[in-house]
Design a protein that fits this description.
This protein has about 375 residues and is mainly alpha-helical. It is about 70% helix and about 5% strand. The chain has one domain: Orthogonal Bundle (ABC transporter involved in vitamin B12 uptake, BtuC), CATH 1.10.3470. The longest helix has 30 residues. The radius of gyration is 24 Å and the shape is globular. The two termini are about 20 Å apart.
């Protein structure tokens, strides 16, 4: 006799397709559940009214014109780094070295401001700073890409280690430039503003936001309509298929990762020349890793990355506002942000997969 087999109670299958309006409903429900859960957490731990707390989050980004532009600036910098890692990730080259590549670009920019401030007109100095930042970002990215293309090394570990090398290089240069041993490089050229990006329409960060907006459009066209974008997609799907149809895989890897490094270099330039006018080991502020989340949530679509970057920047600004207004520990606000992100990320499971329950067996 054959033993009767029982199917599992729960069976998970991948969805072939989910209508966009249904995916939108799932995401809206996820946001509402996130706000409800975070509100319950706030009440249990602090006794505060969750609606007042959420109102403070909005105040952190929209209560003044200055706060709004700071939000746009942070969104633009996060978006720029997300755009940088997207081509490599779409090719399945797991570039975790964006932090180091941004630092390399920022360090080159700072060196130009430090050594060339009195010898060149400002427009020429800025052009040299851009070129140096882009080249430095490319060099920092191309090193692990070269080893990956030729000897199939683990790019995840290699790019991660390059971050620490960049941090130590920045620390060494700051120690050289700041002889008093404080380890803090003051704002450069504050009197002459040599190497500073100009202010447009009386908005300090307008040029930063504009440059990133242009990069976003160009990246969308590059990935969706260019031959290079098609080639890196094929390499990401299958290197064997790419080789079979005549694509030079090594060349594509080097070219794509060089592009990622170049855009990271631009990010470093904008953070130094257009934002802080100095450098530290925390220049990227962890955005090299947060950008991976931005890119993944947007399914590698540059225009959707604008929304995901804005969401994450808003949550970060709102968390800081909560901690400041209610004299909370920063960890409380970070937990609230984490709860919201957890639900937003988790809803992608229900969009991509379907949970099937075993039907009741007939007697």
């Amino acid at each position: 006799m054959h033993e009767k087999t029982h199917e599992p109670l729960i069976h998970i299958t991948k969805r072939a397709f989910l209508e966009p309006w249904k995916a939108l409903i799932v995401r809206i429900c996820a946001v509402l559940l996130a706000l409800l859960t975070a509100g319950l957490f706030i009440v249990l731990l602090t006794g505060l009214n969750p609606l007042e707390v959420y109102a403070e989050m909005f105040k952190g980004s929209f209560s003044t014109n200055r706060k709004f532009w700071i939000l746009l600036q942070k969104t633009a910098m996060l978006l720029c780094i997300a755009l940088a890692v997207t081509p490599a990730f779409k090719m399945k080259f797991w570039n975790l070295g964006a932090e180091g590549q941004v630092l390399a670009g920022g360090l080159a920019c700072t060196a130009c401001m430090f050594y060339l401030k009195d010898s060149l007109p400002n427009w020429l100095l800025i052009l040299i700073m851009i070129a140096a930042s882009v080249l430095s970002g490319i060099i920092w990215a191309i090193i692990p890409a070269f080893f990956k293309a030729n000897w199939n090394t683990n790019e995840t570990l290699f790019t991660l280690m390059m971050n620490y090398a960049a941090i130590q290089l920045v620390s060494f240069c700051i120690a050289k430039w700041v002889p008093n041993g404080s380890g803090v490089l003051p704002i450069l050229n504050s009197s002459t503003k040599a190497g500073w990006l100009p202010t447009l329409f009386e908005k300090q960060y307008f040029l930063n936001v504009l440059i990133v907006a242009v990069i976003t459009v160009v990246m969308y066209v590059y990935l969706k309509y260019s031959k290079h974008g098609y080639e890196l997609s094929v390499v990401g799907e299958s290197q064997n298929t790419a080789k079979y149809i005549g694509i030079n895989v090594k060349k594509i890897i080097l070219r794509t990762v060089a592009l990622s490094g170049a855009i990271c270099g631009v990010s470093g330039f904008l953070l130094v020349s257009g934002t802080g006018h100095t450098i530290s080991t925390g220049l990227a502020g962890g955005n090299g890793f947060t950008a991976i989340l931005v890119s993944w949530l947007a399914k590698f679509n540059p225009f959707i990355m604008v929304l995901t970057s804005l969401l994450i920047s808003f949550l970060q600004r709102g968390a800081s506002q909560i901690a400041s207004s209610y004299q909370m520990d920063d960890s409380i606000s970070d937990i609230v942000t984490g709860i919201i992100l957890f639900f937003i990320i988790g809803c992608e499971f229900f969009i991509n997969y379907k949970i099937n329950f075993r039907k009741k067996e007939d007697k």
